[in-house]
């Protein structure tokens, strides 16, 4: 009996030891996340701790579905350049931003690369609305490929399920500039807002979940008259691209950019209840691949020596198309935020960005987990713009 109890004790000890080893092996992000897991996929309601780890795990969680964006066999090199001399305390800045990644490319070379929150150059991080700028770029590709005729075409010409809805007379141009006039509430603090609820919709038979939600929305303004920031608009841009090309958004992105330009690894895209990409949000990719996308834009949107988008697309997409008219908010192109000096930015909540400055051949990527979605409470958004300006000044000082 004593011998059996001793053997049982050894077995229990081995199980405890194996459990401890497994718990350690899953890594600090999983350990943090599993110690206080969220109840569902509504990331806007996650706690700070859940965001700090969960933004790196979005395509690994059983509560979130995603599809893969395939990379190719070759990787576009990003050579190491001279360290950038900045007149600020980088460590203090990273801490203040609660930064997961910070990358600066200049003339195609890495001048600064830093990570936090247990991230590194091989790990993916969610993009939030940075994905909008990639989705809009696929419209430029679809025009070049002959799948879309003109930006003045009506959305309902390609997405016939919208005929009879508030989107019936909306042009593709109005969709890209978020001036459709269709009602949408983007309040990240309101659990009953459209941006919080659209992915909770049960799709109608034969329809995608996104379309089932969007086609019910009422009109708030005449089309083309009022800018209203709407993730719903870009979700519809993705449906438009898929309908026009006959390909999935993730597949078309892989074909036209991810493989052709030479991203280092596959990315992922979060999907809705009915399996289509939520194209206004939530790609997951490595920081260096987001930087490569910025460089792709600087390179004139060429891949494999061939233009990917329609002629003139980059100038139109990344310059002022509509004045936003809100203090502290930049103006808008085709799903890009525009700056007066010719720079432009793909931006996402909680501190995600691809900042592109053509005049300086500069790309800056930021991944963060801010205190609040817009980075207002702790001044993190303004601080980030200050960092962009500091990098520009450092490049100018080099002559």
User: Could you tell me the mean pLDDT?
Assistant: 92
What value does the Rg take, in angstroms? 22 Å
The CATH architecture comes to 3-Layer(aba) Sandwich
- Helix content class: 25-40%
**CATH class assignment:** Alpha Beta
Order of helices and strands: HHHEHEEEHHHHHHHEEHEEHEEEEEH
CATH topology: Beta-lactamase
Q: Tell me the span between the first and last alpha carbons.
A: 83 Å
Instruction: Give start-end ranges of low-pLDDT stretches.
Output: 6-11
Silhouette: globular
Which structural class best describes the helix and strand composition? alpha+beta
What is the total number of structural domains? 1
Estimate the strand proportion: 5-15%
Number of helices: 14
Look at the structure and name the CATH superfamily.
Answer: DD-peptidase/beta-lactamase superfamily
For the largest beta-sheet, the strand count, sense and barrel status come to:
7 strands, antiparallel
Strand order of the largest sheet: 3-2-13-12-11-10-9
Would you count the extended β strands for me? 13
